[in-house]
Amino acid sequence: MKKLALFTFLLSAIFQFRAGAAAYTDSVQVITYASTLDSLKQALKENQYDSLKAGIYVQIAAQYLKYDTIASKRVRANYQNEAINYTMLALHGFSRYDDTLGMRMCFDYLTKVYRSQKKYSQAKWFVLQSNTISRTINDKPGIIASLLQLAGIKMDIKDYSLAMRDLNEALKLSVENHFATTEARVQENYAVLYNRTKKYGKAAIALKRMDYIYDSLAKAEKAMLAKASVPDSMQAKKKLLTTRKAGRLVPLKRMALL
Question: Which residue ranges form the domains of the chain, and what is each CATH number?
């Protein structure tokens, strides 16, 4: 009985410690964010120009968008609501001055929050607005990013055929424009889709393609770094040897006479 009581006490103490540690981590994160938020809100109060308010609003919203690092459901929900509120304020400001890039940023922010809240109709609408702006200005990376978001939302609502269509377009654009890192991300999304549709063999192939792309990028970067780290004297020596192979060297005296 004594051993059982001791074991129960220790188990309870461990759980209390973990809960306390999680609460402490949350409180530290909230204090850090609050410090930044306070300074931004102070800047908003001191700002006298309406044209600058949207930029401050969107920075405040960006701080609240860090809700996914907070464990507390109550605090996380509050951050999500504040992110929406300040993003909407920023959106109105950007639209007043026809700032399409600012508007697109707001659409992306709202897409993230509404998807986290599982409000898929709203998330889908806002990501489509972001996609439209990217297509209008012919921003290929922006188009691909919105397509990946759109595919993710469609996978969440189990609309797999339409999600596949978005991924196919994203892959086509990334390959045509030689966006290797983006292509790897597309392959990763293919793997998610295939896993959800229980096509595990295709998922494995997509992951192998992703790994191959990342490995190729890593090797290319390593080769570039190795080339850049070769001392100048070594480069000169290599150049001299190459010149000797190409043809005989002109004597110094003869060069002086030329």
Answer: 32-138 (1.25.40.10), 140-220 (1.25.40)
